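Hey, resending since the last one bounced:
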Amino acid sequence: MPRSIWKGSIAFGLVHIPVGLYSAVDSRSLSFTLLDKKNFSPVGYERVNKRTGRKVQWDDIVKGYEYDKGEYVVLTDADFEAANVEATQTIDIVAFVEAADIPALYYEAPYYLAPTKPGRKAYALLREVLERQGKVGVAKVVIRTRQHLAALTPCRDALALVLMRFSEELRAPKELDIPGHDLKALGVTRKEIEMAEALVSGMVDEWKPDRYRDEYRDDLLALIEERAKEGLLNTISEQKPGKRRQKSPAVVNLADLLKQSVLQHANESRARPKGKPRKAAKRSVRKTRNAKILRKAS
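The structure tokens again:
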């Protein structure tokens, strides 16, 4: 069983559910070692005292807040915990909200919560109620030295705690040149809206996360394997830059491009293996509707 990175309890009302916090992410990032290209020896990150140039051991490192230039207030792990014991030991639910009401921009990092033995019944009860009502718990929690906003949400059999960003951490898009909602002023026609709706409805599918892979990571691993098999170790290979995509031409007729996209997706759908009869019937209805829109737009 993995080690928990935090232990405490979920608190809502007078209910406390003892839990452990576990990372829900298995990092798939490729780890690259920094090398000196002269002899391919590793170049490490050194913990060096900036004043003396000497290496500092982990046991001799403390955390300090620069209160004035060159003057630090030193805090220990015990200080961080003692600052607010309750905050460092509870996931304090402050409200329950509709899951769909939280914009995706707020979500940051997912974790799993697992109950200790005394909390199993209350854990299951909370999970069941959240599932039935389609709600998530908005909570505050302190992990290490920082308080986080978080969403407590059911995830299959588990309760997940997704760390969130506070609103002040998000930049407003007001500095960007973003079109408004006056579609008429933007020149968007009814025909273009219908074509875009046809394209979107034709691409509607079930959420199946296993379908999606990190193809860039796979390609890098394949390249590494190929170089290793060719004996190209401890050497710098000359690699021509990949062929860049040509820039899309200026949009002359958006409706025509949408029509082509709908037709292309319809052809690709026909080439795929057919699904269950019920789903096939739904797709047939969509295709009939899309075909009507295509005829109308022609």
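The radius of gyration is 27 Å.

Sorry for the duplicate.
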